[in-house]
Amino acid sequence: xAEHSDYFDQVAQTVVDCDKDACLRLLDEGIDIDxxxxxxxxxxxxxxxxxxxxxxxxxxxxxLIGAADVMKAGVAVLDERIKASGKTRESxxxxxxGTVKGDIHDIGKSVVASMLQANGYxxxxxxxxxxxxEFVKAAQEHKADCVGxxxxxxxxxxxxxxxxxxxxxxxxxxxxxxxxxxxxxxxxFADEIGADAFGYDASDAVKKMKTLLGK
Amino acid sequence: MEGFTxxxxxxxxxxxxxxxxxxxxxxxxxxxxGGMRCDDPRAARLYxxxxxxxxxxxxxxxxxxxxxxxxxxxxxPDFMIYGRDAKNDVAIGKGEVHFATVTGRYLRDIRTGERRxxxxxxxxxxxxxxxxxxxxxxxxxSVMWLYDEPPLINSQILVxxxxxxxxxxxxxxxxxxxxxxxxxxxxxxxxxxxxADELKKKPHVLGHVIINPPRVVDVxxxxxxxxxxxxxxxxxxxxxxxxxxxxPATLAGxxxxxxxxxxxxxxxxxxxxxxxxxxFCSFNPSMDMRTGLWSFGNPEYSTIGSGxxxxxxxxxxxxxxxxxxxxxxxxxxxxxxxxxxxxxxxxAGISLTWTLGGTAGFNFCTWDQMVLDNEVAGFIGQxxxxxxxxxxxxxxxxxxxxGPLPGSYMHEAHTRKWYREEFLIPELSxxxxxxxxxxxxxxxxxxxxxxxxxxxxxxxxxxAPEIQKEIDDYLDxxxxxxxx
Lengths: 215, 484
Hints:
The complex is a heterodimer.
Chain A: H1 5-16, H2 20-29, H3 35-55, H4 61-84, E1 94-99, H5 107-118, E2 122-125, H6 132-141, E3 146-150, H7 158-169, E4 177-181, H8 187-193, E5 197-198, H9 202-213
Parallel strand pairs in A: 1-2, 1-3, 3-4, 4-5
Chain B: H1 17-33, E1 36-38, H2 41-49, E2 53-55, E3 60-62, H3 65-73, E4 79-81, E5 90-92, E6 98-101, E7 106-108, E8 115-117, H4 120-132, H5 154-165, E9 170-172, H6 181-193, H7 196-201, E10 205-211, E11 216-217, H8 219-231, E12 235-239, H9 251-272, E13 278-282, E14 286-287, E15 294-295, H10 299-315, E16 319-322, H11 332-348, E17 352-356, E18 358-359, E19 364-365, H12 367-385, H13 391-394, H14 396-402, H15 413-422, H16 434-439, H17 444-458, H18 465-482
Parallel strand pairs in B: 1-11, 6-17, 7-19, 9-10, 10-12, 12-13, 13-16, 16-17
Antiparallel strand pairs in B: 1-3, 2-3, 4-5, 7-8, 14-15, 18-19
Helix pairs in contact in B: 1-9, 2-9, 3-9, 4-5, 5-6, 5-18, 6-18, 9-10, 10-11, 11-12, 12-17
């Protein structure tokens, strides 16, 4: 049996159980274990399990979101250790996400954020009613691979086009992909404003992200 | 329009009187301890004026029990939504059950069968359909958006077309947030009523003021509350809290949070204008945990709704509701979900439910579904009547006279007198013998489509041409001001 395999399984199980306290406790206990390995064989395994269970209808959004929250907390701890060891970890991609200015709807955006996290992406969630410049600033600051914008309001979705323009003006549009979503958003609208993709629901957003980032 | 009524209307089997008190006590504790976040200084001043504590940089409002009691004391127990034609007047809170339309952002074109986005012509058609159908007592937006009109003037054109094509009362909820939305719509409603005073005297619009869950009093809705109250329009106060997402996943927890949020708006409205008519409203889906969709066709949705109606009774105010299905177009799921929800609502004594025509949780609509729902509304009206017991209906003498065999009631004048009132004679539902049906029949939905087409081809607007012209002139002014 491979070294520490029981430990990794326990870490994975805390993700499946949505048990953040247990996860952080185990990570404390495993301070001497290779963080990259813990990430892949522990947290990663757990989140893949949840993703599979969600796909087959064994668990639902509350577990998926709960598991993504544990994953996020665990990754934050492990990231520190990885950095300290001078190594780098491979990410599926970094995504800056938010509900655009003029709209306070949170749920759809948060579900997409959790689904992306559950699929191995690093997500920076800017929240709701996010200023145009906030998206641009965050994209630059976090060296994002993709900017994701959400809105449920027909007037507010116009701001998605404004953000894309600002990304161009800031000279970073060619460095980031842009994906948009929300009930009034359509493929036509996404094309019109020059977005790279439109996700009609959270699963579709993940699929489109995989195509966009080629990972 | 006379609504449906019966002696058991207003009975909720979801919660008991004792549980109402328990919910109320919890509501009071949450409002006193946690309160509401308030992003609007005008609202904060109003809350402060009636004795609420304003804390945390004037952004947190804590509401003491005495303030809650005072607010409900000034709420009228009932009010009217007037038709602009007396036959379309609707009483809210007087024990009658009414049904109104609801639509969507998409529609199945009745002529081509194509599912597409809604346009201005659909808004006209929706209003005419609602105007013609006998069990439609009022209108929600006659479509949810005009995809062929600019966003900035979308609400104005939509309401203008509704006012031009039906005299039934309507309801309005925040749409675009465009800068002129509030004053423009109030002006259009005044034109339709024949002036500002006429609108105050006979309001034909029920306004909506909503909370941002969990527990935030919103700036936009304060604008609307003030706009509605100044124009003399009754208001429905509610929260669109979604179980499992913006509210607790337990139904009892949902009751607490929804009533907390609703009561906060009752206090705000009564602080601004004591005695202003208002009602509660049920619009509280649960989140579908597989897709994240806000689900309306589920049993918990209308169970929470009937609980809200019970709490409205507890506080002495009326209650209205939204009803819909999660099914995307007309099918068996649409039929059973809508029928069960509406029946439950009617028994709970909900005065008005926006439901006819809509499917896919307020995203889709068809005129044939509106015709089918009109039929269902008639069935529900018949159910809630119950059994009316009086000497003539008891039929004692008749029974003694006709029986035993070979007597028959077919020949009796009593039968001719009573059957039309005591039986429902459906317009569309199948009542053929099986053999006749099997030899050839028209499917129910086809019958509904035919009736809808007939209405669209023949039903003319009842609105006076000079009013229509005045509205058109105002819409031209709005377009020139905001778009051109």
